[in-house]
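Extended Data, panel c. Modelled sequence:
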Amino acid sequence: MQKILIIEDEEGLAEFLELELKYEGYSVDISYDGREGLDKAMNQDFHLILLDLMLPGLNGIEVCRRLRTVKNTPIIMLTAKDSVMDRVMGLDNGADDYLPKPFAIEELLARMRVIFKRQERMAASQTRTLTFKDLELDLESRLLTKENDTIELTNKEFELLSFFMKNINRVLTRDMLLERIWSYDTAVETNVIDVYVRHLRTKLNTDEKEAYIQTVRGVGYVMRE
């Protein structure tokens, strides 16, 4: 569940946002004071902050500026002040977006989704290599290395192994693997998973058959640390 911090001194608006966001499935915390809000933002982990500009204790610009020296938590500024200079000042001090009051809740939710999708894309682009024990799988070149030896993989072997390595310690059923790798192709039987796991084990060239991919009898397979 994504956690949202609302720093807003208008209690009616803050409570309305809390109600709407909880309805959408978010976890919500509220601060009515800039200094208290900054303390929460510094000491807790939130996925996004909705930050008013005009606040008691510490204004929104200063909250944003101080937070940015420590964290990159996404911030959407909410304010009745809608001049170009106000927007520029907020963005220059680290806000990710700026929404003038009054606003439609649908627009706020849409802007939040844009920020979350951007974060997901950035995280995905930064994860170029998967590792497990002495295995290293490069997601761009699709090459597997083990103790500096390169192991060539077919497309399906790569997809299967990368799915295992993205789900370390999670037991993956044969049906889950079929859905993910073969999209439930009607021409594919569940035992094809067993065949490809045997291929991978052979290529990993170890005396211990289950050193990397372990069988969970009657269920599926797991790569377990």
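The first strand starts at residue 3 and ends at 7. This feature is highlighted in the accompanying rendering.
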